[in-house]
Amino acid sequence: MTRHIRLLGFLLVLFASVAAARADVIAYSNFGMNNAYAYPSFVGSGIIGGNMATRTEAAFQFTSAATGPVTSLRLALGTNFASGTAVVSIYGDNMNDPTPSLLTLTLPAVPIFDPANPGNAALPVTVINVPAGKLGITAGQTYWLSVAPGAPNAVGVPNALVWFDNSTGAVSRFAQRTDPPRPNNDFVVFGNTTQGAFTVLVANVVNAPEPASLALLGAGIAGLTIVRRRRAH
After folding, report:
1. Whose CB has fewer CB within 10 Å in the chain, the N or C terminal residue?
2. Which residues constitute the domain of residue 136?
3. Are 45 and 118 within one domain?
């Protein structure tokens, strides 16, 4: 009995170490403590759109600090329309230009604020979970994160977004394009601009369990099962 308890304890410790190795890590973030960002702030990172109006896609350049599959994105977004939807994309980088497109996700709802009376409490951070296996990024490589407002709804209610500035002073290259797009749907890239607040999280594959650890865990479980069967007989 004591031997079984020891084996079970060892397996639990090993399993805990395997589970801990799967924790997400920050590939990039410009939020302050406790996800703080500049609120209210309607300058620099505003994204506008609406019925019969020009929709603008805005993108900020960032360099990943970690390697792994992207698991989630966190952004400081707000809208003053009930139909506030957003399209969030990640692009590669081609000589400081956002290309090619690597991932596009649709966000069905953006937190609502009143531009005339924004209040003192910041809006909740928007979290987008990325389906497993959609995109992997590499430490030291440069990417772009973009946000665009979704299209107006079926009855033409406009859609306007604000991507609130970060509060940590982070700046990067900034790119814009319009819809209807500029010729060839190209971005116009500007110099250092205060970034909208965002975080990119990836699964931690650097510290993932080694094959030997997984094999040992499997062997231990199998051994415990055999012992329990013998006791049953």
Report:
1. C
2. 30-205
3. yes
Q: pLDDT digits over 37-80, tens only?
A: 988 755 445 566 544 456 788 999 999 999 999 999 999 998 87
pTM: 0.76
Contact 152, 159 (CB under 8 A): yes
Same domain, 5 and 61: no
**CB contact burial 194-208 (16+ within 10 A = b; e otherwise):** bbbbbbbbbbbeeee
**Is the Cβ–Cβ distance between 163 and 58 less than 8 Å?**
yes
82-104 residue pLDDT tens: 667 889 999 999 999 999 999 99
Distance between CA atoms of residues 68 and 141, nearest Å: 12
H/E run at residue 223 = helix 211-232
Could you tell me the maximum CA-CA distance found in the chain, to the nearest angstrom?
A: 77
Question: Sign of the CA dihedral 84, 90, 95, 99?
Answer: negative
Q: Say how many domains are in the chain.
A: 2
Examine the domain organization and report whether 232 and 152 are in the same domain: no
